[in-house]
Design a protein that fits this description.
The protein is of the alpha+beta class. It folds into three domains: 187 residues, 2-Layer Sandwich (Threonyl-tRNA Synthetase, Chain A, domain 2); 248 residues, Bira Bifunctional Protein, Domain 2 (BirA Bifunctional Protein, domain 2), CATH 3.30.930.10; 93 residues, Rossmann fold (3-Layer(aba) Sandwich). An eight-stranded mixed sheet has the order 11-14-15-22-19-18-16-17, with helices on both faces. Strands 1, 2, 3, 7 and 8 form a five-stranded antiparallel sheet that branches. The protein has 18 helices and 27 strands. The relative contact order is 0.08. The protein is globular and about 85 Å long.
Length: 600
């Protein structure tokens, strides 16, 4: 039974062999490509001579279980490159031949290994080109711990000009219980999918006329966006940030000066060529513009730290196949700020950003997160990263020391830094276990000097400031996508597009409900009046469907006693309280941005 990540990967990779053997048994002559282990199981890519569908899954699973129960073992055969190519050519497995040729060309190997499945009688039942890492006996794989999930198309080598293969995904776990838990989580994930809920709750849309990856916020979705931006304004003002605004485009020479054209151009939209003018680009990030604001007047050491904040609209070219709802888009509104500072201010400023992260995490009920220190790779200096080896090492150590002194746990990840310096990327997990990269805290030791930023120090000498790039709330797009899934669309009161639905039982109760609606609106609550034209039950169900936190029902009893019957959509509790009690508690919950509503 696997008891580590490595042994689980071995189990899953071994199951990929079982899958391929079962396919070969049921569809002889199928060409095979690769079959790696992945986070939740494995997959294998095939070129079938006849279509395969979901209807084939039961018999394929049955054959896989039969193979497992026969208790086959693995035999490793080392072949010369020439013999391996001959072996796979004879079996008409072109992708295996190409893989051997690639190994010979790129890794200069002289030999490769085949792994054969051997049955109890010593007979060879299946062979694959493989580096190894398998269970000793296939019976170690729980026959009730896997399930074929779905099919997908995949181009060989990821090249759309090459053969399109059929990829079979399998979920695989060390026990039936863990598989069941995973499948239940997937079902819950479907219910919480931000693309599905975003449409049902009328929060955002995409239009073919506008273009892929360019979200349009509806009135309800804009309420959420505005509430988040208001939160950021309050928090940043309290932390000493000042707000700026910058245009959506800039001359190409700005991005040439900052290094973005050299290091980031593949993620930028093509230039706009204007008659008689220089090339302009849609801005991929806000920092080049903020640098120009810093440079617009003389700066002294007394002016630092200078914290410039903006919810700036940025544009990044993402391949259409990589676009995913709000999580990966081409138009994004970033919770951006740039802190210009002296080196002696670094630790305090860097950790104040970390404090801001943690405050937001508590507010959004984010319980699981990892701070990831992304470092450079010296082999990539001058290519992926600016060629300043000493500054890289110095700045990375500054970040380590700051995090250690603060007592913040973090992990180090090589070759994931920004091109201008190390960064902290924050990985978070939603309520259904989906992982997101949400926030970033980046140190820039390079670009300020490149663009001529300077300040007068105490002794009158000119110094180049450090710059911290930070985005604790990521972008509106990614954060709202995450929050939809985190809260299953049922947002806390302060974030909910509609906070209160007013439902009069009959026509003679409507005046009371309308007056209350007007009073609540004056207080700043977002309310929706639901007239008595439809049945009471239908209106209550509609309020629940739209996930409005409070549904207030008003009939004879409520009108006569100036009260409301409050249905808490999250808890399903229903209580009758006075209008004054409802108003005071609800306004307090909204003001304090509480996760849970006080009534019901």
């Amino acid at each position: 039974m696997p008891d580590s990540d490595d042994s689980l990967a071995i189990l899953r990779h071994s199951l990929a062999h079982v899958l391929a053997q079962a396919v070969e048994t049921l569809w002889p002559g199928t060409e095979r490509a690769i079959g790696p282990a992945i986070d939740t199981g494995c997959y294998f890519d095939f070129l079938f001579s006849q279509p395969i569908t979901d209807a084939d899954f039961p018999r394929l699973e049955k054959e896989m279980r039969s193979i497992i129960n026969r208790g086959q073992t693995f035999r490793c055969d080392e072949l010369s490159v020439a013999d391996a190519k001959k072996f796979w050519r004879e079996r008409k497995q072109r992708f295996k031949v190409e893989m051997v040729e690639d190994l010979e060309k790129k890794e200069k190997v002289k030999t490769v290994t085949n792994y054969a499945n051997i049955d109890a009688q010593g007979k060879e039942t299946y062979v694959d080109l493989c580096r190894g890492g398998h269970v000793e006996n296939l019976k170690e794989i729980p026959a009730d711990g896997f399930k074929i999930m779905h099919l997908a198309g995949a181009y060989w080598r990821g090249d759309e000009k090459r053969e399109q293969l059929t990829r079979i995904y399998v979920a695989a776990f060390p026990s039936k219980e863990e598989l069941k838990a995973h499948l239940l989580m997937l079902e819950e994930a479907k219910k919480r999918d931000h693309r599905k809920l975003g449409k049902e709750l009328d929060l955002f849309t995409f239009s073919e006329m506008v273009g892929p990856g360019l979200p349009l916020w509806t009135p309800r979705g804009t309420v959420i966006v505005d509430a988040i931006e208001e939160l950021a304004h309050e928090m940043e003002a309290a932390a000493g940030y000042v707000r700026v605004r910058t245009p959506h485009i800039a001359k190409g020479k700005l991005y040439e000066q900052t290094g973005h054209l050299a290091h980031y151009q593949t993620s930028m939209f093509p230039p706009m060529k204007l008659d008689g003018e220089e090339e302009y680009y849609l801005k991929p990030m806000n920092c080049p513009h903020h640098h120009q604001i810093f440079a617009c007047q003389p700066r002294s050491y007394r002016d630092l730290p200078l914290r410039l904040a903006e919810y700036g609209q940025c544009y990044r070219y993402e391949d259409s196949g990589a676009l995913f709802g709000l999580m990966r888009v081409r138009s994004l509104s970033m919770n951006d700020a740039h802190i210009y500072l002296r080196e002696d201010q670094f630790e305090e400023e860097f950790n104040s950003v970390i404090d801001l992260y943690i405050t937001y995490f508590k507010l959004f009920d984010i319980k699981k997160y990892v701070m990831r220190l992304s470092l450079h790779d010296k082999a990539e200096l001058g290519k992926k990263y600016v060629n300043q080896p000493e500054l890289w090492l110095k700045t990375e150590e500054m970040v380590r020391n700051a995090m250690r002194k603060k007592g913040v746990n973090f992990v180090e990840v090589p070759n994931e830094a920004a091109f201008y310096g190390p960064k902290i990327d924050v990985q978070i997990w939603s309520a259904i276990g989906r992982e997101f990269t949400l926030a970033t805290n980046q140190v820039d030791f390079d670009v300020p000097g490149k663009v001529g930023l300077k300040y007068a120090d105490k002794d009158g000498t000119e110094k180049v400031p450090l710059c911290i790039h930070r985005a604790p709330l990521s972008t509106h797009e990614r954060l709202v996508g995450f929050l939809i899934e985190q809260f299953a669309g049922l947002f806390p009161l302060w974030l909910a597009p509609v906070q209160v639905a007013l439902v009069p039982v009959a026509a003679n109760h409507e005046d009371y409900a309308k007056k209350l609606a007007a009073d609540l609106k004056k207080l700043g609550m977002r309310v929706e009046f639901m007239s008595s034209e439809e049945s009471l039950g239908k209106r209550v169900r509609e309020g629940e469907k739209m996930k409005i936190p409070y549904i207030l029902v008003m009939g004879d009893k409520e009108v006569g006693g100036t009260s409301v019957t409050v249905r808490n959509v999250k808890s399903k509790a229903q209580v009758t309280v006075s209008v004054s009690e409802f108003t005071s508690k609800t306004m307090e919950d909204i003001k304090e941005r509480r996760l849970e509503a006080s009534i019901g």
